[in-house]
Amino acid sequence: MTEKLHQEFLSDQQKIRTELLTEFKQELDDVRTSLEERYREMINAEVGQMEATHRRDLSNIKKKQWCWHCENAMPT
User: What's the CA gap between 7 and 11, in Å, rounded?
Assistant: First the structure.
């Protein structure tokens, strides 16, 4: 009888461990997915900002006159 109760106890304990581990893995996957999504959004926002800055700087540079000999901007 005692052995049977002990085996049931161990079985229940193992079942609980398995369930907790499964829940933990699922929660970990959810958090990882959420963080990856936020990271992609941040990267996309940063790239968009850098592209806008690049376009603005390029437009400003194109408006200047350049010396054909030394390739420095000429004073306006």
Answer: 6
Structure tokens at 57: 């700087």
Q: Two tokens at 60? A: 């400003």
The domain in which residue 54 lies consists of: 1-76
Alpha helices in the chain (DSSP H): 2-62
* Per-residue pLDDT tens digits for 42-72: 999 999 999 999 999 999 888 888 887 887 8
Question: Could you tell me the CA-to-CA distances from 39 to 21, 36, 44, 46, 51 in Å, in that order?
Answer: 26, 5, 9, 10, 18
**Total domains in the fold of the chain:** 1
pTM, two decimal places:
0.60
Query: One-letter amino acid identity for 60?
Result: N
Answer positive or negative: Cα dihedral of 62, 68, 70, 76: negative
